[in-house]
Design goal:
215 residues; mainly alpha
Amino acid sequence: MRSHRRPGGSEDHGRRVVVASRRDRLRAQLSAEVRSVARDIIGRHGVEALTPAAVARAVGVTPAALHRYFTGLPDIVMQAARDIVGDLCRELRDVVEAEAESDFAARLVEPSRAFRRWSLAHRQEFGLLFGSRGSVAGGACGEVAGERVRRLAGVRGPVFTQLWAARPYLIPAEEDHLAPLVTDQEPMFELLMQDLTARTGPAADYRPPRTNAGG
């Protein structure tokens, strides 16, 4: 008995799946290219230099085509910021994992040093994530802020947990968390004044502040 394939049968369904899969791959590829270009522009010139025209020109599409994949420029900024946070967290996690599990001091200190190095080497990206929000970014980075805090906390959080399990340490009361670590600012200020005179020349003429003996 001769069978008749009905329209919209398994063959048509398979064709639609292939087309949809190809479309998804192209979307993912273009999205990755756009985010990479955006990061490059941000890293070299700052987020304020980011424009749809600049991104589209570098990727090889029209600005209008970007709207099929991103809702607007703030969306591109937000996606690029997420990628930056992801790469930063992976870098810091690698630094932690490079230290011996029992060396808690190194596993706490080294990622801070690595973060400082990253901040100095990626000033524009640091400004995007932790600085003031530019007009181009809009509210994009605000949406990433909570995620950024959680992911960065996840780098050293396990180290604190492991340290607590091995050697419980004193945890300050909640009201003490915001207490200043340095209560007497005068010595720090005078160190800065000494550094100022050393850098500008008259270091030998520096004199400590006069004490008010008369009250």
